[in-house]
Write a structure and sequence with these properties.
Layout lengths: L1 H13 L5 E4 L9 E16 L2 E16 L6 H20 L8 E5 L6 E13 L1
Parallel strand pairs: 1-2
Antiparallel strand pairs: 2-3, 3-5, 4-5
Helix pairs in contact: 1-2
């Protein structure tokens, strides 16, 4: 359910821009930019008489883009616009991003930089 919400949320705003969203790992042809998300777990948070009241899903969203996009102002600006679109779509769908997004650079040394969004989604059960 949470992964479906995340996938649909990101597909709605990114697919028209030609950016594909993948669960766990990228598949398909080479792309200048793409998104990969993963679930870090689902934990019970509040209890009443040993009955779970709320659950918290933890998810990580990674926006990958070619490092060459940082070479000039125009493409750098477009990267920041996509980051804003992702962040706003997540918040509008009910996800929280407590630490905010952060630029992790080319962490995998593959020619792609990555912006990371650590998300939480709270819900009653």
């Amino acid at each position: 359910m949470i992964k479906d919400l995340l996938q649909n949320t990101l597909d709605t705003v990114l697919h028209p821009k030609g950016i594909h969203v993948h669960d766990q790992r990228k598949s398909g042809p080479e792309a200048h930019e793409y998104v990969v998300y993963s679930s870090a777990g689902d934990s019970s948070q509040e209890f009443a008489d040993d009955i779970v009241l709320t659950k918290n899903a933890s998810l990580t969203v990674r926006y990958y883009y070619r490092s060459s996009k940082l070479d000039n102002y125009t493409t750098r600006k477009k990267v920041r616009e996509i980051e804003d679109i992702i962040e706003n779509a997540l918040i509008d769908a009910g996800f929280e991003i407590p630490p905010g997004r952060f630029d992790a650079g080319d962490v995998d040394d593959i020619g792609y930089c990555v912006t990371v969004f650590e998300c939480e989604y709270w819900r009653g059960v």
